[in-house]
Design a protein that fits this description.
Layout (H helix, E strand, L loop, with lengths): L2 H33 L3 H34 L2 H10 L1 H4 L1
Length: 90
């Protein structure tokens, strides 16, 4: 498998994983808000959960940008990217 294929597959897998995580976070947020006993508790829960949701969305957006770059990159650039994306793609 080429470097491009390896990185693309790894990034696509990571994106899918984060998108599933995002769905789970959003469901938990909805349930937590529904379970909140007061407006203040609801606001606190909403902020706490939204911080996690936003962090996951940022990871997804960055991974999608990296994936687009991988698909367009030269072989030399891919070699450089492989090292920088190691922590992301495992």
């Amino acid at each position: 498998m080429s470097i491009r294929d390896t990185l693309s597959t790894a990034l696509e897998t990571r994106i899918e994983s984060w998108e599933k995580e995002l769905q789970t976070q959003q469901k938990k947020a909805e349930q937590a808000v529904a379970d909140a006993k007061s407006e203040q508790a609801e606001a606190e829960v909403r902020k706490e959960v939204m911080d996690g949701v936003n962090e996951t969305k940022q990871k997804i957006d960055q991974a999608k940008a990296d994936l687009a770059e991988v698909k367009q990159a030269s072989e030399d650039k891919l070699k450089d990217m492989k090292d920088s994306l190691k922590s992301l793609v495992g």
